[in-house]
Amino acid sequence: MIKSFVHKKLTFRDIDPNQGLRVSIELSPVKIIETITASGLKGRGGAGFPTGAKWKFCSKAEGEQKYVVCNADEGEPGTFKDRVIMTEFPHLVFAGMTIAAKCVGATKGIVYLRGEYTYLLGGLEKALAERREEGLLGDSVMDQDGFAFDIEIRMGSGAYVCGEETALIESLEGHRGESRNRPPFTADTGMNANPTVVNNVETFAWAACIMDKGSDWFRVVGTDISTGFKLFSVSGDIDRPGVYELPLGVTVQEMLEAVGGENAKAVVIGGAAGRCVPQEEFDRKVCYEDVPTGGAVTVFGPGRDMLDVAENFLEFMCEESCGQCTPCRVGNTKLLECVRMLKDGTCSAAYLREIVSLGESIHSASKCGLGQSSGNVFLSIVEHFRDEIMGRAVGAV
Amino acid sequence: MVLLTERDRIRQSLAELTEKYGNTRSSLLPILQDIQREHFHISEYAMQVVADLLGIHPVEVFAVVSFYSFLDFKPRGRFVIRVCRTMCCHMQGKNRVARQLETDLGIKFGETTPDGRFTLEYANCIGMCDLGPALLVNDRVYTEVTPDHVHHIIEECIKVFGAHHMQGQEVER
Protein backbone atom coordinates (compact mmCIF):
# COMPACT_ATOMS: atom_id res chain seq x y z
CA MET A 1 0.00 0.00 0.00
CA ILE A 2 1.20 3.49 -0.82
CA LYS A 3 1.73 5.46 2.35
CA SER A 4 1.42 9.18 1.95
CA PHE A 5 2.30 11.53 4.76
CA VAL A 6 -0.93 12.59 6.43
CA HIS A 7 -0.67 15.56 8.72
CA LYS A 8 -2.20 15.54 12.24
CA LYS A 9 -5.29 13.60 13.16
CA LEU A 10 -7.84 13.69 10.40
CA THR A 11 -11.46 14.24 11.40
CA PHE A 12 -12.34 11.17 9.33
CA ARG A 13 -10.36 8.98 11.75
CA ASP A 14 -12.59 9.88 14.71
CA ILE A 15 -15.83 9.24 12.88
CA ASP A 16 -17.77 5.98 12.93
CA PRO A 17 -18.21 5.65 9.17
CA ASN A 18 -21.76 4.32 9.34
CA GLN A 19 -23.20 6.45 12.15
CA GLY A 20 -24.32 9.18 9.71
CA LEU A 21 -26.10 6.53 7.66
CA ARG A 22 -27.84 5.11 10.74
CA VAL A 23 -29.13 8.59 11.57
CA SER A 24 -30.19 9.33 7.98
CA ILE A 25 -32.06 6.09 7.45
CA GLU A 26 -34.71 7.29 9.92
CA LEU A 27 -35.00 10.73 8.33
CA SER A 28 -37.11 11.99 5.44
CA PRO A 29 -35.31 13.27 2.33
CA VAL A 30 -36.39 16.80 3.23
CA LYS A 31 -34.69 16.52 6.63
CA ILE A 32 -31.46 15.23 5.10
CA ILE A 33 -31.43 18.07 2.58
CA GLU A 34 -32.09 20.55 5.40
CA THR A 35 -29.12 19.32 7.40
CA ILE A 36 -26.73 19.25 4.43
CA THR A 37 -27.90 22.68 3.28
CA ALA A 38 -27.58 24.14 6.77
CA SER A 39 -24.01 22.84 7.02
CA GLY A 40 -23.04 24.92 3.97
CA LEU A 41 -21.14 21.97 2.46
CA LYS A 42 -19.94 22.79 -1.05
CA GLY A 43 -18.52 20.47 -3.71
CA ARG A 44 -15.01 19.45 -2.66
CA GLY A 45 -13.89 18.67 -6.19
CA GLY A 46 -13.25 22.34 -6.87
CA ALA A 47 -16.35 23.75 -8.53
CA GLY A 48 -17.94 24.43 -5.14
CA PHE A 49 -21.59 23.86 -5.97
CA PRO A 50 -23.71 23.64 -2.78
CA THR A 51 -24.27 19.94 -2.10
CA GLY A 52 -27.65 20.44 -0.43
CA ALA A 53 -29.01 22.29 -3.47
CA LYS A 54 -27.74 19.57 -5.81
CA TRP A 55 -29.45 16.83 -3.80
CA LYS A 56 -32.62 18.88 -3.63
CA PHE A 57 -32.79 19.32 -7.42
CA CYS A 58 -32.21 15.64 -7.93
CA SER A 59 -34.76 14.54 -5.32
CA LYS A 60 -37.40 16.69 -7.02
CA ALA A 61 -36.52 15.60 -10.56
CA GLU A 62 -38.60 12.80 -11.99
CA GLY A 63 -37.08 9.65 -13.39
CA GLU A 64 -37.50 5.91 -13.25
CA GLN A 65 -33.96 5.09 -12.25
CA LYS A 66 -31.92 7.68 -10.37
CA TYR A 67 -28.17 7.40 -9.94
CA VAL A 68 -25.59 8.47 -7.40
CA VAL A 69 -22.18 8.82 -8.98
CA CYS A 70 -18.95 9.27 -7.06
CA ASN A 71 -16.37 11.18 -9.05
CA ALA A 72 -13.11 9.40 -8.24
CA ASP A 73 -11.40 10.58 -11.42
CA GLU A 74 -8.89 12.59 -9.45
CA GLY A 75 -6.81 13.89 -12.33
CA GLU A 76 -5.93 17.44 -11.38
CA PRO A 77 -2.13 17.76 -11.27
CA GLY A 78 -1.12 18.08 -7.64
CA THR A 79 -4.16 16.36 -6.11
CA PHE A 80 -3.96 13.05 -4.31
CA LYS A 81 -6.25 13.47 -1.29
CA ASP A 82 -9.01 11.33 -2.86
CA ARG A 83 -6.49 8.50 -3.21
CA VAL A 84 -5.77 8.75 0.52
CA ILE A 85 -9.49 8.93 1.39
CA MET A 86 -10.28 5.88 -0.77
CA THR A 87 -7.36 3.95 0.70
CA GLU A 88 -8.08 4.74 4.34
CA PHE A 89 -11.78 5.60 4.58
CA PRO A 90 -13.68 3.80 1.80
CA HIS A 91 -16.62 3.05 4.12
CA LEU A 92 -17.15 6.73 4.84
CA VAL A 93 -17.39 7.47 1.11
CA PHE A 94 -19.78 4.57 0.48
CA ALA A 95 -21.89 5.62 3.49
CA GLY A 96 -22.10 9.15 2.04
CA MET A 97 -23.23 7.72 -1.29
CA THR A 98 -25.88 5.61 0.44
CA ILE A 99 -27.16 8.68 2.30
CA ALA A 100 -27.38 10.56 -1.01
CA ALA A 101 -29.25 7.61 -2.53
CA LYS A 102 -31.72 7.53 0.34
CA CYS A 103 -32.18 11.28 -0.02
CA VAL A 104 -32.82 11.47 -3.77
CA GLY A 105 -34.37 8.02 -4.22
CA ALA A 106 -31.57 6.46 -6.23
CA THR A 107 -31.16 2.70 -6.53
CA LYS A 108 -27.85 2.56 -8.32
CA GLY A 109 -24.48 3.92 -7.29
CA ILE A 110 -21.41 4.12 -9.48
CA VAL A 111 -17.85 4.98 -8.51
CA TYR A 112 -15.94 6.26 -11.53
CA LEU A 113 -12.37 5.44 -10.61
CA ARG A 114 -9.54 6.76 -12.76
CA GLY A 115 -7.58 4.11 -14.65
CA GLU A 116 -4.33 5.24 -13.02
CA TYR A 117 -5.77 4.11 -9.65
CA THR A 118 -6.54 0.53 -10.72
CA TYR A 119 -4.42 -0.68 -7.79
CA LEU A 120 -7.07 0.73 -5.41
CA LEU A 121 -9.75 -1.47 -6.95
CA GLY A 122 -9.07 -4.51 -4.73
CA GLY A 123 -9.47 -2.55 -1.49
CA LEU A 124 -12.62 -0.82 -2.67
CA GLU A 125 -14.24 -4.06 -3.88
CA LYS A 126 -13.42 -5.64 -0.52
CA ALA A 127 -15.11 -2.77 1.34
CA LEU A 128 -18.17 -3.10 -0.90
CA ALA A 129 -18.36 -6.84 -0.24
CA GLU A 130 -18.23 -6.18 3.52
CA ARG A 131 -21.07 -3.70 3.22
CA ARG A 132 -23.22 -6.16 1.28
CA GLU A 133 -22.48 -8.76 3.95
CA GLU A 134 -23.55 -6.36 6.71
CA GLY A 135 -26.74 -5.38 4.88
CA LEU A 136 -25.54 -1.83 4.28
CA LEU A 137 -26.00 -2.34 0.55
CA GLY A 138 -28.44 -4.56 -1.27
CA ASP A 139 -32.14 -5.07 -1.83
CA SER A 140 -33.19 -3.60 1.49
CA VAL A 141 -30.48 -1.44 3.00
CA MET A 142 -30.45 -1.72 6.81
CA ASP A 143 -33.68 -3.72 6.59
CA GLN A 144 -35.57 -0.74 5.22
CA ASP A 145 -38.35 -1.93 2.98
CA GLY A 146 -38.23 -0.31 -0.41
CA PHE A 147 -34.70 1.06 -0.06
CA ALA A 148 -32.61 -0.90 -2.54
CA PHE A 149 -29.16 0.44 -3.33
CA ASP A 150 -25.95 -1.05 -4.60
CA ILE A 151 -22.65 0.38 -5.76
CA GLU A 152 -20.63 -0.62 -8.79
CA ILE A 153 -17.10 0.51 -9.64
CA ARG A 154 -16.35 1.58 -13.19
CA MET A 155 -12.87 2.35 -14.43
CA GLY A 156 -11.73 5.34 -16.40
CA SER A 157 -9.11 4.99 -19.10
CA GLY A 158 -6.75 7.89 -18.72
CA ALA A 159 -8.66 11.02 -19.64
CA TYR A 160 -8.40 14.09 -17.39
CA VAL A 161 -11.53 15.69 -18.88
CA CYS A 162 -13.65 12.82 -17.50
CA GLY A 163 -13.36 14.49 -14.09
CA GLU A 164 -15.80 17.05 -15.46
CA GLU A 165 -19.21 15.72 -14.49
CA THR A 166 -20.92 15.73 -17.86
CA ALA A 167 -17.87 14.22 -19.57
CA LEU A 168 -17.78 11.60 -16.83
CA ILE A 169 -21.36 10.65 -17.61
CA GLU A 170 -20.62 10.52 -21.33
CA SER A 171 -17.80 8.13 -20.49
CA LEU A 172 -20.04 5.97 -18.29
CA GLU A 173 -22.51 5.76 -21.14
CA GLY A 174 -19.77 4.40 -23.39
CA HIS A 175 -18.89 7.50 -25.36
CA ARG A 176 -15.87 9.73 -25.77
CA GLY A 177 -15.44 11.87 -22.68
CA GLU A 178 -16.66 15.07 -24.24
CA SER A 179 -18.50 17.44 -21.95
CA ARG A 180 -22.10 18.40 -22.61
CA ASN A 181 -23.81 21.75 -22.76
CA ARG A 182 -25.48 22.77 -19.52
CA PRO A 183 -28.38 23.12 -18.88
CA PRO A 184 -29.79 20.52 -18.65
CA PHE A 185 -27.88 19.74 -15.47
CA THR A 186 -26.96 16.22 -14.42
CA ALA A 187 -29.27 16.50 -11.41
CA ASP A 188 -32.23 16.06 -13.76
CA THR A 189 -30.70 14.80 -17.02
CA GLY A 190 -27.65 12.73 -16.18
CA MET A 191 -26.78 9.08 -16.68
CA ASN A 192 -28.96 7.67 -19.50
CA ALA A 193 -31.00 10.91 -19.25
CA ASN A 194 -32.00 10.07 -15.67
CA PRO A 195 -31.59 12.30 -12.61
CA THR A 196 -28.06 11.81 -11.28
CA VAL A 197 -26.14 13.16 -8.30
CA VAL A 198 -22.45 13.51 -9.11
CA ASN A 199 -20.18 14.42 -6.18
CA ASN A 200 -16.51 14.23 -5.40
CA VAL A 201 -15.10 11.51 -3.11
CA GLU A 202 -14.40 14.00 -0.34
CA THR A 203 -17.87 15.57 -0.57
CA PHE A 204 -19.53 12.21 0.12
CA ALA A 205 -17.19 11.60 3.05
CA TRP A 206 -18.02 14.97 4.61
CA ALA A 207 -21.74 14.47 4.00
CA ALA A 208 -21.56 11.24 6.02
CA CYS A 209 -19.75 13.11 8.84
CA ILE A 210 -22.31 15.93 8.82
CA MET A 211 -25.25 13.54 9.11
CA ASP A 212 -23.56 12.09 12.19
CA LYS A 213 -22.33 15.24 13.93
CA GLY A 214 -24.86 17.80 12.73
CA SER A 215 -24.64 20.91 10.61
CA ASP A 216 -23.50 23.22 13.45
CA TRP A 217 -20.48 21.00 14.14
CA PHE A 218 -19.42 21.54 10.53
CA ARG A 219 -20.10 25.28 10.42
CA VAL A 220 -17.89 26.03 13.40
CA VAL A 221 -14.80 26.11 11.19
CA GLY A 222 -14.23 27.91 7.92
CA THR A 223 -15.73 31.17 6.70
CA ASP A 224 -19.40 32.10 6.33
CA ILE A 225 -19.41 31.12 2.67
CA SER A 226 -16.85 28.31 2.78
CA THR A 227 -17.69 26.21 5.79
CA GLY A 228 -15.85 23.29 7.26
CA PHE A 229 -12.50 21.60 6.91
CA LYS A 230 -10.93 20.68 3.60
CA LEU A 231 -8.28 18.18 2.69
CA PHE A 232 -5.34 19.68 0.82
CA SER A 233 -2.77 17.78 -1.19
CA VAL A 234 0.43 19.75 -0.77
CA SER A 235 3.54 19.03 -2.76
CA GLY A 236 6.51 20.71 -4.42
CA ASP A 237 9.42 22.51 -2.75
CA ILE A 238 8.44 21.92 0.87
CA ASP A 239 9.73 19.92 3.82
CA ARG A 240 6.67 17.77 4.44
CA PRO A 241 4.60 17.01 1.33
CA GLY A 242 1.38 15.16 2.05
CA VAL A 243 -2.30 15.49 2.85
CA TYR A 244 -3.34 18.21 5.28
CA GLU A 245 -6.70 18.90 6.84
CA LEU A 246 -7.11 22.66 7.25
CA PRO A 247 -10.11 24.92 7.68
CA LEU A 248 -11.28 26.73 4.56
CA GLY A 249 -10.27 30.37 4.72
CA VAL A 250 -6.72 29.49 5.77
CA THR A 251 -4.21 31.94 4.27
CA VAL A 252 -1.54 30.75 1.89
CA GLN A 253 1.09 31.87 4.41
CA GLU A 254 -0.45 29.79 7.22
CA MET A 255 -0.56 26.82 4.94
CA LEU A 256 3.08 27.23 3.97
CA GLU A 257 4.06 27.34 7.64
CA ALA A 258 2.18 24.12 8.29
CA VAL A 259 3.95 22.27 5.47
CA GLY A 260 7.42 23.74 5.82
CA GLY A 261 7.54 25.89 2.71
CA GLU A 262 8.08 29.37 4.13
CA ASN A 263 10.65 30.42 1.55
CA ALA A 264 8.36 29.78 -1.43
CA LYS A 265 8.30 32.28 -4.24
CA ALA A 266 4.94 31.22 -5.66
CA VAL A 267 2.20 28.70 -5.02
CA VAL A 268 -0.10 27.25 -7.64
CA ILE A 269 -3.45 26.58 -6.03
CA GLY A 270 -5.88 24.35 -7.91
CA GLY A 271 -3.43 22.46 -10.15
CA ALA A 272 -3.24 23.00 -13.90
CA ALA A 273 -6.70 24.58 -13.79
CA GLY A 274 -5.78 26.75 -10.82
CA ARG A 275 -4.03 30.02 -10.27
CA CYS A 276 -0.51 31.10 -9.43
CA VAL A 277 -0.32 33.12 -6.21
CA PRO A 278 2.92 35.14 -5.86
CA GLN A 279 4.68 35.90 -2.59
CA GLU A 280 3.14 39.37 -2.19
CA GLU A 281 -0.31 37.79 -2.11
CA PHE A 282 0.40 35.06 0.44
CA ASP A 283 -2.13 36.70 2.77
CA ARG A 284 -4.94 35.62 0.47
CA LYS A 285 -7.40 33.07 1.76
CA VAL A 286 -7.93 29.65 0.27
CA CYS A 287 -11.71 29.34 0.04
CA TYR A 288 -14.46 29.52 -2.56
CA GLU A 289 -14.79 33.32 -2.30
CA ASP A 290 -11.07 34.11 -2.68
CA VAL A 291 -8.69 31.50 -4.10
CA PRO A 292 -10.78 28.39 -4.85
CA THR A 293 -9.30 24.91 -5.06
CA GLY A 294 -10.20 21.27 -5.31
CA GLY A 295 -7.30 20.60 -2.98
CA ALA A 296 -4.17 20.85 -5.11
CA VAL A 297 -1.42 23.05 -3.69
CA THR A 298 1.92 23.06 -5.51
CA VAL A 299 4.70 25.09 -3.95
CA PHE A 300 7.60 26.57 -5.93
CA GLY A 301 10.85 27.51 -4.24
CA PRO A 302 13.07 30.50 -5.06
CA GLY A 303 15.07 28.67 -7.73
CA ARG A 304 12.15 27.67 -9.95
CA ASP A 305 11.64 29.17 -13.38
CA MET A 306 7.99 30.19 -13.66
CA LEU A 307 8.10 29.63 -17.42
CA ASP A 308 8.86 25.95 -16.76
CA VAL A 309 5.73 25.86 -14.64
CA ALA A 310 3.60 27.52 -17.31
CA GLU A 311 5.08 25.26 -20.00
CA ASN A 312 4.45 22.04 -18.07
CA PHE A 313 0.85 22.90 -17.21
CA LEU A 314 0.09 24.05 -20.76
CA GLU A 315 1.58 20.87 -22.22
CA PHE A 316 -0.81 19.07 -19.91
CA MET A 317 -3.80 21.10 -21.10
CA CYS A 318 -2.91 20.72 -24.79
CA GLU A 319 -2.82 16.98 -24.35
CA GLU A 320 -5.92 16.64 -22.20
CA SER A 321 -8.23 19.02 -24.05
CA CYS A 322 -11.02 16.87 -25.50
CA GLY A 323 -10.95 18.95 -28.67
CA GLN A 324 -14.61 19.88 -28.90
CA CYS A 325 -14.22 23.64 -28.49
CA THR A 326 -11.77 25.33 -30.85
CA PRO A 327 -10.66 27.99 -28.33
CA CYS A 328 -9.47 25.31 -25.92
CA ARG A 329 -8.07 22.89 -28.52
CA VAL A 330 -6.17 25.43 -30.62
CA GLY A 331 -5.90 28.30 -28.15
CA ASN A 332 -3.85 26.35 -25.65
CA THR A 333 -1.31 25.35 -28.30
CA LYS A 334 -0.87 29.07 -29.09
CA LEU A 335 -0.38 29.80 -25.39
CA LEU A 336 2.22 27.04 -25.17
CA GLU A 337 3.98 28.37 -28.26
CA CYS A 338 4.10 31.79 -26.61
CA VAL A 339 5.70 30.35 -23.46
CA ARG A 340 8.41 28.78 -25.61
CA MET A 341 8.95 32.11 -27.39
CA LEU A 342 9.30 33.79 -24.00
CA LYS A 343 11.85 31.18 -22.99
CA ASP A 344 13.75 31.98 -26.13
CA GLY A 345 13.43 35.74 -25.67
CA THR A 346 11.61 36.17 -28.97
CA CYS A 347 8.18 37.24 -27.77
CA SER A 348 7.38 40.93 -28.22
CA ALA A 349 5.35 42.80 -25.62
CA ALA A 350 2.65 43.41 -28.25
CA TYR A 351 2.42 39.70 -29.06
CA LEU A 352 2.27 38.83 -25.38
CA ARG A 353 -0.65 41.24 -25.03
CA GLU A 354 -2.44 39.50 -27.91
CA ILE A 355 -1.87 36.11 -26.34
CA VAL A 356 -3.14 37.28 -22.96
CA SER A 357 -6.30 38.44 -24.67
CA LEU A 358 -6.54 35.06 -26.41
CA GLY A 359 -6.22 33.45 -22.99
CA GLU A 360 -9.19 35.46 -21.83
CA SER A 361 -11.19 34.42 -24.91
CA ILE A 362 -10.48 30.75 -24.17
CA HIS A 363 -12.01 31.33 -20.77
CA SER A 364 -15.21 32.84 -22.10
CA ALA A 365 -15.64 30.69 -25.22
CA SER A 366 -15.12 27.15 -23.88
CA LYS A 367 -17.93 24.86 -22.89
CA CYS A 368 -16.62 23.13 -19.80
CA GLY A 369 -14.54 23.80 -16.73
CA LEU A 370 -11.38 22.40 -18.32
CA GLY A 371 -11.42 24.87 -21.19
CA GLN A 372 -12.56 27.77 -19.08
CA SER A 373 -9.72 27.36 -16.63
CA SER A 374 -7.03 26.06 -19.00
CA GLY A 375 -5.20 29.36 -19.35
CA ASN A 376 -5.39 30.42 -15.70
CA VAL A 377 -1.91 29.40 -14.62
CA PHE A 378 -0.35 31.03 -17.69
CA LEU A 379 -2.34 34.24 -17.28
CA SER A 380 -1.54 34.60 -13.59
CA ILE A 381 2.15 33.94 -14.19
CA VAL A 382 2.23 36.59 -16.92
CA GLU A 383 0.42 38.98 -14.59
CA HIS A 384 2.73 38.55 -11.62
CA PHE A 385 6.10 37.60 -13.07
CA ARG A 386 6.56 39.90 -16.09
CA ASP A 387 10.05 40.90 -14.98
CA GLU A 388 11.13 37.31 -14.70
CA ILE A 389 9.70 36.05 -17.96
CA MET A 390 10.49 38.86 -20.41
CA GLY A 391 13.72 39.91 -22.06
CA ARG A 392 15.54 36.60 -21.89
CA ALA A 393 18.72 36.06 -23.84
CA VAL A 394 18.22 34.13 -27.08
CA GLY A 395 18.72 30.41 -26.55
CA ALA A 396 19.26 30.88 -22.81
CA VAL A 397 16.94 28.02 -21.87
CA MET B 1 -7.59 -29.97 -28.68
CA VAL B 2 -9.12 -27.36 -30.89
CA LEU B 3 -6.80 -25.05 -32.74
CA LEU B 4 -7.95 -21.45 -32.54
CA THR B 5 -6.82 -18.60 -34.71
CA GLU B 6 -6.25 -15.16 -33.20
CA ARG B 7 -9.56 -14.05 -34.68
CA ASP B 8 -11.40 -17.01 -33.13
CA ARG B 9 -9.93 -16.14 -29.76
CA ILE B 10 -10.97 -12.51 -30.02
CA ARG B 11 -14.48 -13.45 -31.15
CA GLN B 12 -14.75 -15.88 -28.29
CA SER B 13 -13.55 -13.50 -25.60
CA LEU B 14 -15.78 -10.74 -26.94
CA ALA B 15 -18.81 -13.00 -26.81
CA GLU B 16 -17.97 -13.82 -23.19
CA LEU B 17 -17.44 -10.18 -22.31
CA THR B 18 -20.75 -9.11 -23.84
CA GLU B 19 -22.37 -11.87 -21.83
CA LYS B 20 -20.70 -10.54 -18.67
CA TYR B 21 -21.28 -6.80 -19.10
CA GLY B 22 -24.42 -6.82 -21.28
CA ASN B 23 -24.78 -5.64 -24.84
CA THR B 24 -25.70 -2.03 -24.13
CA ARG B 25 -23.68 0.97 -25.17
CA SER B 26 -22.56 1.65 -21.61
CA SER B 27 -20.79 -1.73 -21.58
CA LEU B 28 -18.47 -0.57 -24.35
CA LEU B 29 -15.73 0.83 -22.13
CA PRO B 30 -15.50 -2.14 -19.72
CA ILE B 31 -15.42 -4.52 -22.72
CA LEU B 32 -12.66 -2.54 -24.45
CA GLN B 33 -10.67 -2.29 -21.21
CA ASP B 34 -10.72 -6.07 -20.81
CA ILE B 35 -9.73 -6.64 -24.44
CA GLN B 36 -6.85 -4.21 -24.04
CA ARG B 37 -5.74 -6.06 -20.90
CA GLU B 38 -5.88 -9.45 -22.57
CA HIS B 39 -4.59 -8.68 -26.05
CA PHE B 40 -2.42 -5.59 -25.35
CA HIS B 41 -4.32 -3.60 -27.96
CA ILE B 42 -7.71 -3.42 -29.66
CA SER B 43 -7.38 -4.52 -33.25
CA GLU B 44 -9.54 -3.34 -36.13
CA TYR B 45 -11.09 -6.79 -36.19
CA ALA B 46 -11.95 -6.57 -32.48
CA MET B 47 -13.51 -3.14 -33.00
CA GLN B 48 -15.64 -4.54 -35.82
CA VAL B 49 -16.84 -7.47 -33.70
CA VAL B 50 -17.64 -5.27 -30.69
CA ALA B 51 -19.60 -2.94 -32.96
CA ASP B 52 -21.62 -5.87 -34.31
CA LEU B 53 -22.32 -7.22 -30.84
CA LEU B 54 -23.49 -3.85 -29.50
CA GLY B 55 -25.31 -2.87 -32.67
CA ILE B 56 -23.34 0.31 -33.28
CA HIS B 57 -21.17 1.54 -36.14
CA PRO B 58 -17.50 0.45 -35.98
CA VAL B 59 -16.43 4.07 -36.32
CA GLU B 60 -18.15 4.75 -32.98
CA VAL B 61 -15.90 2.15 -31.40
CA PHE B 62 -12.84 3.61 -33.09
CA ALA B 63 -13.83 7.07 -31.81
CA VAL B 64 -13.84 5.75 -28.26
CA VAL B 65 -10.60 3.78 -28.59
CA SER B 66 -8.79 6.78 -30.03
CA PHE B 67 -10.06 9.10 -27.29
CA TYR B 68 -8.75 7.30 -24.21
CA SER B 69 -5.02 7.20 -23.64
CA PHE B 70 -5.15 3.75 -21.99
CA LEU B 71 -6.76 2.17 -25.07
CA ASP B 72 -4.59 1.50 -28.13
CA PHE B 73 -5.22 0.26 -31.61
CA LYS B 74 -1.55 -0.50 -32.17
CA PRO B 75 -0.03 -3.46 -30.31
CA ARG B 76 1.58 -2.52 -27.00
CA GLY B 77 4.15 -4.33 -24.92
CA ARG B 78 3.27 -6.77 -22.17
CA PHE B 79 4.50 -4.16 -19.72
CA VAL B 80 3.51 -0.60 -20.39
CA ILE B 81 5.70 1.76 -18.40
CA ARG B 82 4.10 5.16 -17.92
CA VAL B 83 6.28 7.85 -16.43
CA CYS B 84 4.43 10.77 -14.87
CA ARG B 85 5.52 13.91 -16.65
CA THR B 86 3.52 16.51 -14.74
CA MET B 87 4.98 19.34 -12.68
CA CYS B 88 5.61 17.73 -9.29
CA CYS B 89 7.29 14.64 -10.70
CA HIS B 90 9.14 16.91 -13.13
CA MET B 91 10.53 18.95 -10.23
CA GLN B 92 11.54 15.80 -8.40
CA GLY B 93 13.69 14.59 -11.27
CA LYS B 94 11.54 12.66 -13.72
CA ASN B 95 13.83 13.61 -16.64
CA ARG B 96 16.71 11.54 -15.33
CA VAL B 97 14.45 8.56 -14.63
CA ALA B 98 13.04 8.87 -18.14
CA ARG B 99 16.51 9.07 -19.67
CA GLN B 100 17.67 5.97 -17.81
CA LEU B 101 14.59 4.04 -18.92
CA GLU B 102 15.27 4.95 -22.56
CA THR B 103 18.85 3.83 -22.23
CA ASP B 104 18.13 0.60 -20.37
CA LEU B 105 15.33 -0.43 -22.72
CA GLY B 106 16.94 0.90 -25.88
CA ILE B 107 13.77 2.64 -27.03
CA LYS B 108 12.35 6.15 -27.03
CA PHE B 109 9.10 7.27 -25.43
CA GLY B 110 6.14 6.12 -27.50
CA GLU B 111 8.00 3.03 -28.73
CA THR B 112 7.78 -0.69 -27.96
CA THR B 113 10.76 -2.99 -27.68
CA PRO B 114 11.11 -5.30 -30.71
CA ASP B 115 10.47 -8.36 -28.52
CA GLY B 116 7.10 -6.89 -27.51
CA ARG B 117 7.90 -6.85 -23.82
CA PHE B 118 8.03 -3.16 -22.96
CA THR B 119 6.29 -0.01 -24.09
CA LEU B 120 7.53 3.32 -22.81
CA GLU B 121 5.08 6.19 -22.48
CA TYR B 122 4.49 9.39 -20.61
CA ALA B 123 1.41 9.78 -18.43
CA ASN B 124 -0.18 12.94 -17.16
CA CYS B 125 -0.36 13.34 -13.37
CA ILE B 126 -0.90 9.94 -11.77
CA GLY B 127 -1.66 11.36 -8.32
CA MET B 128 1.67 10.62 -6.65
CA CYS B 129 2.81 14.24 -6.42
CA ASP B 130 4.06 13.88 -2.84
CA LEU B 131 6.07 10.77 -3.68
CA GLY B 132 7.60 11.59 -7.04
CA PRO B 133 9.06 10.81 -9.42
CA ALA B 134 6.43 8.15 -9.97
CA LEU B 135 5.63 5.68 -12.71
CA LEU B 136 3.11 2.98 -13.48
CA VAL B 137 4.00 -0.45 -14.81
CA ASN B 138 0.64 -1.68 -16.06
CA ASP B 139 -1.53 -1.29 -12.94
CA ARG B 140 1.31 -1.22 -10.50
CA VAL B 141 2.67 2.03 -9.13
CA TYR B 142 6.28 2.82 -8.23
CA THR B 143 7.05 5.92 -6.18
CA GLU B 144 10.19 7.92 -5.42
CA VAL B 145 11.95 6.24 -8.31
CA THR B 146 15.64 6.99 -8.77
CA PRO B 147 17.60 6.45 -12.00
CA ASP B 148 19.37 3.55 -10.26
CA HIS B 149 16.03 1.99 -9.28
CA VAL B 150 14.94 1.77 -12.95
CA HIS B 151 17.11 -1.26 -13.53
CA HIS B 152 15.43 -3.17 -10.69
CA ILE B 153 11.96 -2.35 -11.97
CA ILE B 154 12.82 -3.75 -15.39
CA GLU B 155 14.43 -6.85 -13.83
CA GLU B 156 11.32 -7.44 -11.77
CA CYS B 157 9.20 -7.42 -14.92
CA ILE B 158 11.53 -9.75 -16.81
CA LYS B 159 11.56 -12.19 -13.89
CA VAL B 160 7.81 -12.73 -13.98
CA PHE B 161 7.75 -12.77 -17.76
CA GLY B 162 6.93 -16.09 -19.39
CA ALA B 163 5.12 -17.97 -16.65
CA HIS B 164 2.56 -15.23 -16.19
CA HIS B 165 2.33 -11.50 -16.63
CA MET B 166 1.41 -8.93 -14.05
CA GLN B 167 -1.65 -7.39 -15.59
CA GLY B 168 -4.71 -7.57 -13.41
CA GLN B 169 -2.76 -8.79 -10.44
CA GLU B 170 -3.35 -7.11 -7.15
CA VAL B 171 -0.58 -4.89 -5.91
CA GLU B 172 1.23 -5.84 -2.79
CA ARG B 173 3.50 -3.32 -1.24
Write the layout of secondary structure elements.
The complex is a heterodimer of chains A (397) and B (173).
Chain A: H1 19-25, H2 29-39, H3 51-60, E1 66-72, H4 81-88, H5 90-104, E2 106-113, H6 121-133, E3 150-155, H7 165-172, E4 196-200, H8 201-213, H9 215-219, E5 229-236, E6 242-247, E7 250-251, H10 252-259, E8 266-269, E9 275-278, E10 285-286, E11 296-300, H11 306-320, H12 326-344, H13 349-365, H14 369-373, H15 376-384, H16 386-389
Parallel strand pairs in A: 1-2, 1-4, 2-3, 5-11
Antiparallel strand pairs in A: 5-6, 7-10, 8-9, 8-11
Helix pairs in contact in A: 1-5, 1-8, 2-3, 2-5, 5-8, 11-12, 12-13, 13-15
Chain B: H1 6-21, H2 28-39, H3 44-54, H4 58-67, E1 79-84, H5 87-91, H6 94-105, E2 118-123, E3 135-137, E4 140-142, H7 147-160
Parallel strand pairs in B: 1-2
Antiparallel strand pairs in B: 1-3, 3-4
Helix pairs in contact in B: 1-2, 1-3, 3-4, 6-7
Please tell me about this protein's structure.
The complex is a heterodimer of chains A (397) and B (173). Chain A has 397 residues and is of the alpha/beta class. In chain A, 42% of the residues lie in helices and 14% in strands. Chain A has helices at residues 19-25, 29-39, 51-60, 81-88, 90-104, 121-133, 165-172, 201-213, 215-219, 252-259, 306-320, 326-344, 349-365, 369-373, 376-384, 386-389, and strands spanning 66-72, 106-113, 150-155, 196-200, 229-236, 242-247, 250-251, 266-269, 275-278, 285-286, 296-300. Chain A has a 5-stranded mixed β-sheet. The two termini of chain A are 39 Å apart. Chain B is of the alpha+beta class and 173 residues long. Chain B has 2 domains: 6-67, Arc Repressor Mutant, subunit A; 79-160, Glutaredoxin (3-Layer(aba) Sandwich), CATH 3.40.30.10. In chain B, strands 2-1-3-4 form a 4-stranded mixed β-sheet, with helices on one face. The N and C termini of chain B lie far apart (40 Å). At the A-B interface, strand 5 and helix 11 of A face helix 2, helix 4 and helix 5 of B.
